[in-house]
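Example 3.2
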Amino acid sequence: MLSNIFGILGIGSTVLIYQQKTRKCLVLSKLLSDVIWFLYYFSLSAYSGAAIAVIGMIREIVFVNKEKKWAKHPLWLVLFLVLSFGCAVFTWKNAFSLLPCVASAVSVISFWIGNPRLSRILSYPISACMLTYDITCGAVLGIVNELFTVISSIIGAIRLDRKKESK
């Protein structure tokens, strides 16, 4: 029951991510989402998903401060990529355990670049990885979340990116 509550809250928080106009709002929305998804995956004993969410939380704290000198250093990018793939070593169950790690690595690149439009585009391969992982670990609300993520990203692209192109 508790995991269902976290899953429903997670879906709501994820929908908000790709509707943000600015990089900072997008990253803060992702931070909130990762906190909730950590609770969801941990409650399901889906530890690869939970560990990636923790890495995501730390990543977003750094990336939301990217205008500060300490957070601009390119070693952060390298660190988060290494952590993303290193996570697979510590949470290994099967080959599907790699999928959240790949999704995290793509997400690291997406949020490091800091372009909301690119983040919406990269949400598709991220969602494909997480959708497959959710199916294999029985995370039903995770599956629903990935479907909503793709829909939200498409709506964000139409609402925000097409407007910019027409101007």
